[in-house]
Amino acid sequence: MAVGDILSTHRAALGFMALGAALAISAGAVFQSMRQPEPIVAGPGVTRQSMLGDLAPSLAGGPGDTPVFELVGAEPGPTVMILGGTHPQEIAGMMAAVLLVENVTVKKGRLIVVPQANRSGFTHTDPMEAYLHTFEVPTPGGTRWFRVGMRLTNPADQWPDPDIFVHKPSGEGMVGHEQRNLNRVHPGSATGWLTSRVSAALTGLAGQSDVVFDLHEAQPEYPVINMMVVHERAFETAATAVGNLEARRIPMGLSASPKNLHGLSHREFGDFTKAEAMLAESANPAMGRFRGRTSDDLVVGGHDANYEAAARLGRLFVKFDQNGWPLKLRVARHVAAIEEVINAYNELNPDKQIVVENIPAYKDINDKGLGAFLKPPPATKS
């Protein structure tokens, strides 16, 4: 081989090495940025902010550790626990929890709020679905940013998946990746895989609670949509709350938690703790199979021409028109559901009252937008 050819080959090799190094550095920067937590601002009602790892030391400082906000009244009373972010791409649940943290105060009883129950799931997305990594909400004091995550724990934090995941203690078999689905592993195990340890810690918090409300979203073509799914011991409270929502012209269905489906919060928290356990779903078009290109307008605005066409063909379980299902509406529904569950619990338990004030009103959230109820950003995204 001629000297010139050798030099040319060496230059090409060095060029490929440099390109590889640049790509590795870029990928590392993206990986690190996905681990940067978005700011959640403790409002005036927060009396204690801790981490889930304070309850479960094996999680402390790791990818499953997540903020826990407590709002405790001056007078004793029952405890209500709110979970958002069990499935991190179901962003209305996380945002509803954030609105509680940043706005409400408790006069009697205790409110426990975990906005990002599966924190690891917020550190990745499904590349085949072209999900956004983040979305922004303008506020009077500046722009706030939040993550869009993935339904499952990040495989970088828990791997490998088994061929078959066997739920404990029921023995029910599921596809292997469900071992990373927080809402399939409850009540969890303090010595299990990461997702199971997160579940065990949350089950411990549920054991301190009288009511647990897990906030979710689903695609508009999913039958269990705009509905509460509740454990049998929570049925009277949930039915009363649903009746109150319907009276306010906020449509909400009611479904009993199946006894033969295991690992779900409404089943396992109800079976393994004293809490009245329930879950609510709202309609998120960004999650569905009919949607068009993923965009800010789809994720935050909730608009999609494909879903409008699917609605005209009768393929959906909710109405869908040019107004879409904007994030503010979905969050407003969750917040109203929380309010009515609290009202229903108080109505049915006159000797055990939780008094929560400054819950953002359903109409105000829809009229003013989410930004009106978010604190100014403490820092800009780097």
TrEMBL record:
The chain crosses the membrane at residues 12-31. Keywords: Membrane, Transmembrane, Transmembrane helix. The keyword Membrane applies. InterPro entries: N-alpha-Ac-DABA_deacetylase (IPR053138). It comes from the Bacteria. This is Succinylglutamate desuccinylase. It comes from Alsobacter ponti.
